[in-house]
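Entry 0007
Protein: Transmembrane 7 superfamily member 3
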Amino acid sequence: MGLLQLLVLAVLASERRVAGAAEVFANFSEGLIEFSVGKFRIFELNRPFPEEAILHDISNNVTFLIFQIHSQYQNTTVSFSPTLLPNASKTGTDSGLVFILKPEQSTCTWYLEISDTEPVQSMAILLSYSERDPIPGGCNLEFDLDIDPNIYLEYNFFETTIKFAPANLGYARGTDPPSCDAGTDQDSRWRLQYDVYQYFLPENDLTEDMVLTHLQRMVTVPQVKANALKVATLTANDKTSVSFSSLPGQGVIYNVIVWDPFLNTSAAYVPVHTYACSFEAGEDSCASLGRVSSKVFFTLFALLGFFICFFGHRFWKTELFFIGFIIMGFFFYILITRLTPIKYDVRLILTAVAGSVGGMFLVAAWWRCGILSICMLCVGLVLGFLISSVTFFTPLGNLKIFHDDGVFWVTFSCIAILIPVVFMGCLRILNILTCGVIGSYSVVLAIDSYLSTSLSYVTLNVLKRALNKDFSRAFTNVPFQTNDFIILAVWGMLAVSGITLQIRRERGRPFFPPHPYKLWKQERERRVTNILDPSYHIPPLRERLYGRLTQIKELFQKEQPAGERTPLLL
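Output (C-alpha cells):
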C-alpha cells in the first residue's frame, strides 16, 4: 500500500511540473495569453492577426502596470486595442505600455502582433506599481504615446544615443494626475531624478537565448541596481538624452530608473538593447563585421610591429619607418575621412600608401640630416600618444570636464608631450620602451580584426573623437571580460619580453648608430684618395649605368653573319 501511495504522489508531482512549464511557454490553442505579475513568459508570436493577452486578479493597491515585450531583432507590436493606432501602440524590439488602472478594476487586456511571416521568439513580463511610485514617461511631450515608458535608441558608427520621456509623480486610482508644468518646486515632478544604467552582454555571443536571458536582469529596479553599471544621474532640468560610444557586434542593454527622493520610491523604464549593427543587412551585418581589407592591413602592420618589439633598437632605420608610418597614416586617415566620402577600403589603401611615404621620409631625414633629437621626438610622441589614450580609456575619460573638446585635447596633448620630456636624458631607454609597447600593441590591433576585443578602443576612441564632433558627449565605457584579460596579458608579456631582450642585448653597445650621411661621405673621400683601395678603380655610377644599358641593347641586336658581303674587284 505504501508503494502505491508513493507512485500516486510521483505522478501528481510530474503533472504539477508540466503545468508549471506551461506558464513559461504560452499556450496558443485557446487564442489567449494569460500573464501573472512579475513572472517572465517566453513564447513565439506567429499569427498574422493580434493575439490577446490578459491579466486577472489585480490587487487593489496597484495603481498602474507596465507591460513590456522583447525580441532579439524582429519587431513586435503591443497595443491597447486590436486596431493599431499611433497613440495607443508601440512597435519595436523592446516595447512597453503603461496601464493606468481605474477604481475597482481587477482585469486588464491588451494585444500582441508581429508583421513578419516568420515566428518571433519573445520574452514578456508585467510589473505592478503603487500610487507612491513615479510613473515612467508620465510627462511625455515628444513621442506618440500619452504615457510612454519606452527608451528610444539610435546608433551610428560613432555613438549610440538613448532618449526617454520625463516621468511624473504617482497618484491614486480615480484621481487626476499631477500637472507636469504647474511649477518647479518639490511638490512637482521636477524633484525626480533619473539614473542611467548600462549592461554588457558576453562578448562575441549573438545568440537569441543569450539576450533574452540577460534582459531579465535589467527589468526590475533591484535587478538593475545589482547587475548594471550606473553611468549618469540626470535631474529634471537636464535633457533626457544620453550618448555612448558605439560598439559594433557587442550586445549592450540600457535602462533608466526614475527615483523620487521625497518618498524614496523608484520605477524602471522598459530596457532597450542594441548590437550597433544590423542582423538583416548584407554588408557590415553583425555576423560579418570584420572586413578583409582590415585583416590584411593590420596583419601586415602587426608583423612589422612584432619585429620592432624585439629588434627595433638594433634596426634603427626600420623602426623609424614604423614610427613615420604611424604618424603619417594616422593624420592622413583623419584628413581623408573628414574631407572626402570615399569608401573605407579605398581609404585604408590610401592610408597605407601615405604611411609608407611618411616612413620613408623619416628614414631619409635621418640619413641626410642625422638629427637624433627630432627622430626621438617623433618616437616619444608616439609612445606619449598611446599612454595618453590609455589614460582616457580609464573611467577618468568619462568625467564631465573632459566632455569639453578644448579641455580634452589640451590635456591629451600635454600628457603626450610629457613623455619625451621626461625621458630627455635617457633616449635609449625611451626608444626601447617605445619599441616594446607600440610594437606589441600592433599585435593587439591585429587580434581585434579577427576576434573582437575592447583593448582596440584604447586608440579607436581617440580616432572617433577626432573624426566626429558629437563624440565628445559620449560615455566611452567598454566591457572587460575574459577575452580582454587574456589579450591584455599577451600585450603585457610581449612588451616586457621585448623591452628586456633589447636592454640586455644592447648593453655595452653604442646608444645609437652614427650619422649615415657623414659615414657615406667619409667613405667616398677615402676611396678617392686611396688608390690601393680596389673600389678606387671602380668607374663612376653614370659610366656603370651606361655600360649596363649598352649590354642590354646588345641582347636585342641581330647577330651579323660572318664572311665578305661586297663583290671582289677583278
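Curator remark: Residues 158 and 523 are 55 Å apart (CA to CA). The longest helix spans residues 344-369.
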